[in-house]
Amino acid sequence: MIRFVTPAFALAFALAPLIARADGGFIHASPSLSLASPCNPGASCAFSWTLASRMGHILRFTESRYGPRNRNWTLLGVEFTSEDAPQVWYPTFDGIGDTIIIQLTKSAATDETRALFQLSHEVVHLLSPAGPNGRANVLEEGLATYNSLEYLRAIGDPVQPSYIDAPRYQRAYRAVRRLADRPDFAQGIRRLRQGNRPLSTVSSGDLLRVWPGLPFGDALILAEPF
Known about the structure:
The chain is mainly alpha-helical. The protein is built from nine helices and three strands.
């Protein structure tokens, strides 16, 4: 049988090897993370949750504790990256860089718990972004890791601190975990963020003013660049 190839089909066929290489071995995301399906009639939802709606839920959870995020930045959404670690990045369009994308790792694409753990970590960096040249401190990274564990516990999918696989994140988490035992913990984070100040810019002196009685050594550790 003779097959007639349209120009569009021929172009797609020619690009197929390039697309395959660009894919980098990516295993496409689990439907529970990427496909919104209509809920059953009579259910309280309209569609099943995906990463987009889950991000909204995580934002609400995080902002209710630590204050609203800086809305001068436009959040574009969530994607997966070939990098080894999740991150936020700041794309620039027409020379303007006021947008943010959350990137999760390929391994999170087929592991819902890992995806939510990474997403609830990166959401903390949306509160008061430091921009592409900013560098988080121990406080910010520890708070982000603490938020991940707290969010998963809140939705009934808890993981233990041993789930944190990088020693420096474990160290940051432990520093913030000690701080979180204080009754004024969340209030202190809100005070540090007044005026949308990035947490990455706070000093040990700021921490001692916000949390009277905080051991000086703990304040030094929390203010260290991560």
